[in-house]
């Protein structure tokens, strides 16, 4: 597959022709001229130098935001015009996704930052995980992980997020020189900055990631393409990418899920578990740890401990924007299934007395109230309602 890739979302203008296993050509400038002056001449020069025929490309991958309003409009108009003229589909590649993808294979947290002014940045958090094969310790292809989708946040808030992960961070992007001092003052985790040949947008990365998106069916007609200038609501971004009636899928939690679960913990609970605590729980043999996914993203999780023929739910949570969409019920149903296969006869839990929604959920799924632990919870102080459910074990 061959794609034309375009990124004019920031100070850098960059275009490329990319195939499945190689970059045919790439032209990048980071200078004072406006993208309206440079983008089409860059494409024309690149095509001429490699004697390419744009009619032979399969699609156009374009960095669709966030980023500069003017830059995104220029890139969008250029890509749409070429797409309509050539009758080729467009692949929307989030700007910061492509920036992170250029750090291919890095197991640190990858944090692209684009200056959004007023001490805010466009960013996202990413990493690559490596899974061992069973034949002599060889590794499979690194898996690109989106820990936090692209967003616009104050630098102080980004620093708080990164300190939660307690992992090394590598920064790149035009926001680095602007906020380098703020990062140095606030970060409590090891960090570094990408070298000059990796620290700005590259169309080759847009094209390589675009090919993966195309193969996954994530492309559209040129007439339908719209850039995303600033996605204020994470919920709106996620809602646009999932099907309205997507069914949550539940699987066993893995070590690679630890960072994402820790982030949700800190978003949802005042007594949040650290990533270390979550990973230690995963390593124990008497635990059942589940992840619920909805439309390709982590929706919630469940941590339970087993002893004899009982299982006690220690944590169950669903991210706020995906609550009341079936994720919690799916987690409880899968827990029941796992318990049934392992000979567990009873599931126990406790819930805040004031959490009416959770109590209603548990009651509707067969749990009964057994008693009260007075003033059990803190922040705020509240009674705990003890609940349990008897399971039918098939002989």
From TrEMBL:
Enzyme class per UniProt: transferase
Highest taxon of source: Bacteria
Enzyme Commission no: 2.3.1.234
Cited Pfam families: Acetyltransf_1, TsaD
Stretches assigned to the N-acetyltransferase domain: 248-392
GO molecular function: N-acetyltransferase activity; tRNA N(6)-L-threonylcarbamoyladenine synthase activity
Keywords, comma-separated and alphabetical: Acyltransferase, Cytoplasm, Transferase
UniProt key word Ligase: no
Coiled-coil ranges from the UniProt annotation: none
One Gene Ontology term from the biological process aspect of the record: tRNA threonylcarbamoyladenosine modification
Record-stated family: Belongs to the acetyltransferase family. RimI subfamily.
Protein name: tRNA (Adenosine(37)-N6)-threonylcarbamoyltransferase complex dimerization subunit type 1 TsaB
Species in which this protein is naturally found: Candidatus Mediterraneibacter faecipullorum
